[in-house]
Automatic annotation (TrEMBL):
InterPro entries: Antitoxin_Phd/YefM, YefM-like_sf. Antitoxin component of a type II toxin-antitoxin (TA) system. It comes from Rohdeia mirabilis. Gene3D superfamilies: YefM-like domain (3.40.1620.10). This is Antitoxin. Belongs to the phD/YefM antitoxin family. Pfam families: PhdYeFM_antitox.
Amino acid sequence: MDWKLAEAKARLSELVSRTLDEGPQRILRRNDAVVVLSEEEFRRLTGARLDFVEFLASAPRLDDLELPPRDGAMREVDL
């Protein structure tokens, strides 16, 4: 959808919602235009990757992970 700048400013919340629901939105100002994208779409288009901290933060939680008890003795290690 195309938005005039004044309309986009007045209805910013709707513009953001439509961007997330429908995809990129174009804002027109005289002879110029900009496109508003969701962050997910931006990352897909640019190939941007999460930094290490974001990667760790996006990992699934393991709080409920139940591991079976380990059978046998621990191995000997020479230090």
